[in-house]
Amino acid sequence: MSNIKATIDDIAHGLHRANIIDKKTLRELTNDDFPELIEYTGEEIQQLRKNQKLSQAVFAKYLNVSPALIRSLEQGTRHAHGAILKLLNIVNKHGIDALVK
């Protein structure tokens, strides 16, 4: 995540130097702390799902993915990244209800 933050900082400072964005926008782009995303093992994903008292099929529906993806994540044959990783972090931090509000 730090590479993404560094890239955004570099781009924002370049846009400011080129007078494309103002100081306020520069501060907004560079001062926001991007949350660290926790990466999960298959066992941790399974425990997260079980803590929410959900089957693989129902958990998959909440995350808008296939049950096969949940199964492969839990078995460790695939690893969560991108949007699914973000959703897992949200569920871990706020519970499954955060996805239906």
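That was protein one. Protein two is written in the same sequence-then-structure order:
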Amino acid sequence: MKCTFCGKEMEKGTGKLVVKADGKILSFCKSKCEKNSIIRNPRRVAWTEVFKEQKQTKKV
């Protein structure tokens, strides 16, 4: 399972699952990711996998 915010792989049975009112399931590897998901876009945070992938595609 991957973290919804940072994209890192998590072991089964770790982290936190959050179910929103609309039925969407979010999984977080640590509280840092959970807190940042409320106020930030993962594309603009340098330590996320999405940011790293986006940066590599711009170089090419």
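The first strand starts at residue 16 and ends at 19. Keep this in mind for the problem set.
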